[in-house]
Design a protein that fits this description.
Elements (H helix, E strand, L loop, with lengths): L2 H19 L8 H15 L5 H8 L3 H13 L3 E5 L7 E5 L1 H21 L5 H18 L3
Antiparallel strand pairs: 1-2
Length: 141
């Protein structure tokens, strides 16, 4: 096995474990996952639904429905009727959801900045480019 692949695998494992224990743990609320999916849909001009949440989070429809209900109950997301198809329900961020998204971005970026403290600008640029490239391929599988 390629030692670089093993190193990447171990880094992913370590990152997941550290997120569940420390810096980003308080940001790992299931309703926030839904909020991220809805924000991405809004940013890309697509429509967020319970089905799109299920697909994005790799969960089944009943689990996605529970997650969406949690986000709605938290006041982060609201359900609205699709004007083109009244049987379909779309998800949109509420004003509180937009404010929470902004705060999540600030907190996540602060955690990343702390982790990259002491890195050169060139290292940050290279890491951002390579990680983005890796995730775009890795996440598509």
């Amino acid at each position: 096995m390629d030692s670089h692949l093993a190193a990447v695998e171990q880094a992913l494992i370590a990152m997941r474990r550290s997120q569940s224990r420390r810096a980003l743990a308080e940001l790992a609320v299931p309703a926030f996952d839904v909020l991220d999916v809805v924000e991405t849909a809004e940013r890309t001009g697509t429509q967020a639904t319970v089905s799109s949440v299920a697909s994005a989070l790799h969960v089944d429809q009943p689990r996605a429905s529970k997650l969406v209900t949690s986000a709605v109950d938290s006041g982060l997301v609201s359900r609205v009727a699709d004007k083109a198809d009244g049987r379909r329900v779309l998800l949109v961020r509420t004003p509180r959801g937009r404010a929470t998204s902004a705060e999540l971005h600030r907190a996540r970026q602060a955690a990343c900045a702390s982790a990259m403290d002491g890195w050169t600008d060139e290292e940050r640029v290279a890491f951002a480019e390579l990680l983005t490239r890796f995730v775009s391929v890795f996440g598509a599988r």
